[in-house]
Write a structure and sequence with these properties.
With 293 residues, the protein is of the alpha+beta class. It is 26% helix and 40% strand. The chain is globular and about 50 Å long.
Length: 293
């Protein structure tokens, strides 16, 4: 029996490496839906892909992004009636947006009520031009000046307290690759970019950042989760369950179909308590099609 369990373990972890993954969306709560949508459209150049109101459940949602949900990473904005303020916390860091010229974006943010927390410029000793801004909800965005990319909404940054352990978690549980790693003892931080594919400038990546000597992080209640596509939520959940036993975290929603939409999902918390939802690829496309009808 033990030998069989080891074979199953090895098989599912090997399967994860070859699964068809894609970053689908990130869900965040906002205090003013219409203002946030307009801010993202006018400042960042995003499109409003859909917007719906659910009065019987006391919330509204909008989906914004740089292209169709079928092929692009997008943001799902949730407005809960009567709630105007959320705490971002310290565990979630920022989203990244790539653009060929970030200077006019920064000025637009300034004009429309956002906050510029770092003016555009090159990183020390490097050639990357970047800036940091905050939207009216307090969400931080890193603006990265680079050439054309099929995925302008290019990054989710999470703070971690154990970088190597976090990298191992996302490698083993979700089949991600290490695309870049950098340690700066001088500035007391280390980062790693993990994701799918081989070029971090052409896809959405997860940036994991460790600030030296930080041992506690707060989740807040603003950022909800990221969703990633998979070809089999049951196998994916089995892999995640194995890795949580080794590295921490837990399954919070076992794999299965949503009773209302039929979309198969599973969700888990990583070792730092940040939530990810895994969504069946084919079901995801069907749900988008049905929502548009």
């Amino acid at each position: 029996m033990a030998a069989m369990e080891n074979v199953i373990r090895d098989d599912v972890l090997e399967w994860v490496k070859n699964d068809t993954h894609r970053f689908l969306n990130a869900v965040i709560r906002v205090g003013d839906l219409n203002r946030t949508v307009e801010f993202y459209k006018k400042c960042f150049g995003m499109q409003l892909l859909s917007q719906k109101d659910f009065p019987e459940e006391n919330y509204s949602k909008a989906i914004v992004g740089f292209g169709p949900q079928e092929s692009h990473f997008v943001l799902e904005l949730i407005y809960i009636y009567g709630v105007e303020k959320y705490e971002v916390g310290t565990a979630w860091g920022h989203f990244g947006i790539a653009a060929q010229n970030i200077y006019p974006i920064v000025e637009k943010v300034r004009q429309l009520g956002g906050v510029v927390t770092k003016e555009p410029g090159k990183n020390e000793g490097g050639s990357q031009v970047y800036a940091f801004v905050e939207d009216p909800n307090g969400y931080s965005f890193e603006l990265l000046q680079r050439g054309p990319t099929p995925e302008p909404l290019c990054q989710i940054m999470l703070q971690v307290t154990d970088l190597d352990r976090a990298i191992s978690f996302y490698e083993k549980a979700l089949g991600m690759n290490i695309l870049f790693k950098y340690d700066s003892p001088q500035h007391q931080f280390a980062i790693a970019m993990v994701g799918y594919g081989s070029d971090q400038t052409q896809t959405t990546v997860l940036e994991l950042k460790y600030d030296y000597n930080v041992t506690e992080l707060t989740a807040g209640n603003a950022y909800v989760h990221a969703a990633i596509g998979t070809s089999d939520v049951y196998k994916s959940a089995a892999a995640v369950a194995q890795i949580t036993q080794e590295l921490g975290g837990k399954i919070v929603h076992p794999p299965g179909p949503n009773p209302l939409t039929g979309t198969k999902t599973t969700s888990f918390l990583d070792l730092h308590g940040m939530k990810t939802v895994l969504v069946d690829n084919e079901d995801h496309l069907k749900e988008i099609k049905n929502d548009g009808q």
